[in-house]
């Protein structure tokens, strides 16, 4: 969905270190696939997905806090 795409782009932009790490994860998955090591590729893919989920949860929590703070500020004005 467009929302998911915007969220993904924003979260990656907000964390350039994560972007570099994500690229390295993708490169390792491709390397395993080129070697024909499907077990390693699957393992690396799962680790990558776990890492993405942790990042989304961490970023999402920060966004929720910002939204709550903005709401509280506008209600007190």
TrEMBL record:
Keywords: DNA-binding, Transcription, Transcription regulation. Residues 10-50 form the GntR C-terminal domain. It holds the Pfam family FCD. Signal peptide: none annotated. The keyword Cell division does not apply. One of its GO terms (molecular function) is DNA binding. This is GntR C-terminal domain-containing protein. It comes from marine sediment metagenome.
């Amino acid at each position: 969905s467009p929302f998911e795409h915007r969220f993904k782009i924003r979260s990656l932009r907000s964390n350039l270190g994560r972007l570099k790490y994500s690229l390295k994860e993708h490169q390792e998955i491709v390397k395993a696939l080129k070697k024909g090591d499907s077990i390693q590729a699957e393992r690396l893919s799962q680790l990558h997905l776990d890492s993405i989920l942790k990042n989304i949860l961490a970023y999402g929590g920060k966004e929720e806090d910002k939204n709550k703070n903005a709401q509280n500020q506008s209600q007190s004005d």
